[in-house]
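Human:
Care to share another protein and its fold?

Assistant:
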Amino acid sequence: MNLFSLIKGKSQEISPWPHILEFSKMKIQSVKADSFLMEENQGIRFVFVIDGKYYWTIENQTFTVFPNDLVVVFPGQTFGSLSGSFEVGTFVSLSLGVGFQDNSELRLGDWSSISDSEQRLISQILSQKDQSIIPSFKLCGELLQKIEHEMFANEIAYKSKVNNLLDEIWIWLARQMSKNENQGRIFPQTFHRLDQMLRENLSHPWTVEEMAAIMGLGTTTFTEKVKAFSGFPPLNYLINLRISEAIRLLKNSNKSLTDIALDTGFYSSQHFSTTFKKLTGYTPGHFRKNK
């Protein structure tokens, strides 16, 4: 097993990827005092356990971490061991310097091929931040191993390949977190979480695929469950939410009809007006005058 520790600004091997802050594979053979003190995390850190059993603390919550588990630590969270030391074992650690717009929306940077809309979706899933441990996530370990190979083999297009593999980690992480979040929950509870997310982001151009991904379901199953539970297909349910918020704004604000249309997710004032009249019997302007 090849062990390594690559640090941005110190290790030439990772210089082609300025977004990588640290990449290392460590094998702890004996406990050493003050080797893993509690510190505030920089960037997003992924730690994949190869072997051993660890007791690690994130934001004052201690977790037991087993082989094939992935630890996810967000920027600003405290991370370390209450004992101040690593337990015996082997793990891979990867830290990425990524940005968050308004402290919530992921910004990977120009190196990533993940579209802005897909990054927003991943942000929605990551924003829950209640899954610090992704259990039995062997796929992530395989992706990290591929990144290690590309970095040291320096084969054709290895720089692009590493970035592609980093994208894969984000994608599979979001998928796995979505599945874990909803595993064992009954549908009304998970749908309530989605409902809150929709209400807080009505201006976002939601698709059925995005909503289903957040619920950890396929689009067909998701559509069937939403219709059975609410009486409406997903997009119709979303339109009802948008019209409800538009009614509130028409009654309680002086915003223009165009601003209200855009704030509630309609792509134009005409689209807003047509939909509003179809569902309420009034145009937005007439409704406001007679509120």
Observations:
- The chain has a mean pLDDT of 88.
- The two ends are 72 Å apart (CA to CA).
- The chain has two domains: 4-182, 184-291.
